[in-house]
Amino acid sequence: xxxxxxxxxxxxxxxxxxxxxxxxxxxxxxxxxxxxxxxxxxxxxxxxxxxxxxxxxxxxxxxxxxxxxxxxxxxxxxxxxxxxxxxxxxxxxxxxx
Length: 97
Known about the structure:
The chain has helices at residues 22-35, 39-53, 57-60, 63-77, 84-95, and strands at residues 7-11, 17-21. The chain has 2 domains: 1-54, no CATH class; 56-97, no CATH class. By secondary structure, it is mainly alpha-helical. It has a two-stranded antiparallel sheet.
């Protein structure tokens, strides 16, 4: 999971909102992990963190496929698109069906 937020909002026991920046949150989590005695909890945390470092599916695609997808996105951005009706009409004219 990529965190793109600089600030996270957490709620304390009285449900008052506290603002905690990402670095403070990381340090707080490290301290809690170091003090944790529940091995099941630590295994669950490890599993979550392992998923975070796994490769993104995009990176597993062949370069040719990535290039093709990016080219398609550029075409969309540049307005080089056709409606479904336009494609069907062209196919009817070209192939006679």
